[in-house]
Design goal:
Elements (H helix, E strand, L loop, with lengths): L4 H4 L2 H9 L5 E3 H7 L5 H11 L8 H17 L9 H4 L2 E3 H4 L3 H14 L10 H18 L8 H16 L2 H36 L3
Antiparallel strand pairs: 1-2
């Protein structure tokens, strides 16, 4: 059975529809519906991209939870995405989306123009599951209240899921690199915080 025209549209075209959505709010269910029967990778990309936008505090948690649910579905090789009603009915202000989404759509169009299928061995059963595992770890970071800690993990999720959709191994390698850098920074930050806490405790505690 041939795919519908909606499924064949570039991601940038679908996201442009989101950017200029006429309603005051848009739900996760509406975002999902815009992709029709698209693969799980498309939804991972959308929610990862949403975490990059300059949204109000707590928004990355709203979009991070779907990532936590979708990544395991990629790991087990699910044929179609599933989200519970509680997440599907959550909404976000379209005025918040319009603050950064049109600019991201423009950048995505440039990437789509040069992206092509390559390094196909990275997208076999093992490769797809590896992407799912990495995205799941990054999603767990995104739902944590870490000030400024969402940018690199969200960028890595977006790169890996976009690579999965396009079957572009070079972009997948970039996504893995960003994930490693993100993990390194978070580990270093956690180490600094722990050392500061230990030092502070040593100062205030009695000898």
């Amino acid at each position: 059975m041939p795919e519908s025209p909606e499924i064949q549209r570039p991601l940038s075209a679908v996201l442009a529809d989101v950017a200029y959505h006429e309603g005051e709010r848009i739900s996760v269910a509406e975002l999902t519906q815009l992709f029709g029967g698209r693969a799980i990778g498309a939804l991972l990309f959308v929610f990862g991209l949403a975490c990059l936008l300059p949204l109000p505090p707590g928004a990355t948690t709203i979009f991070g939870f779907p990532l936590v649910l979708l990544a395991p579905q990629l790991i087990i090789g699910a044929a179609a995405p599933w989200l519970p009603d509680g997440i599907r009915h959550r909404t976000i202000s379209t005025s918040d989306l319009k603050k950064g989404l049109p600019r991201l759509v423009g950048a995505l169009r440039k990437v789509e123009a040069v992206s092509k299928p390559r390094l196909a061995f990275m997208f076999g059963p093992v490769g797809e599951r590896l992407i799912g595992v990495v995205v799941l770890v990054l999603a767990l970071v995104l739902i944590l209240p870490i000030p400024g800690g969402n940018m690199l993990p969200a960028l890595a999720v977006s790169a890996l899921s976009f690579a999965l959709i396009q079957r572009d191994g070079l972009i997948a390698l970039l996504g893995y690199l960003i994930a490693v850098v993100s993990a390194s920074i978070l580990v270093a930050a956690a180490h600094i915080i722990v050392r500061m806490f230990v030092h502070f405790w040593a100062v205030i505690s009695p000898a």
